[in-house]
Amino acid sequence: QVTLVESGGGLVQAGGSLTLSCAASGRTLSSYVVGWFRQAPGKEREVLAAISRRGGRIYYAESVKGRFAISRDNVKNTVYLRMNNLRPDDTAVFFCAADPNLRGVTSINYYRSADKYDYWGQGTQVTVSS
Q: Residues 72-90, buried b or exposed e (16+ Cβ, 10 A)?
């Protein structure tokens, strides 16, 4: 079983940047597809991006395409989310999630849904001020 811990959240002004980290322990993260999600108060959890086990396939939600970038360093057992040009409506708790893809799904688009992931971190708060 893998344990995920997010870090890097905080308060940033509109137009600023942050890089979130999702560090894994217990198992090697290279065995998992990883996704980033966010949830704002009163809203449903929203997928932002997903990355395949070796990083060769990436999915981005339209809402963040061109502003956010997901990457992974399997040596460091960490997945990152670089967020640029942040806006006040990006304010949310950000979560990373992992799935071992035991079914061997090849399309990264499959991982657009939160219910496809078995493991979740506790989240990190990102607040963007105007």
A: bebeebbbbbebeebeeeb
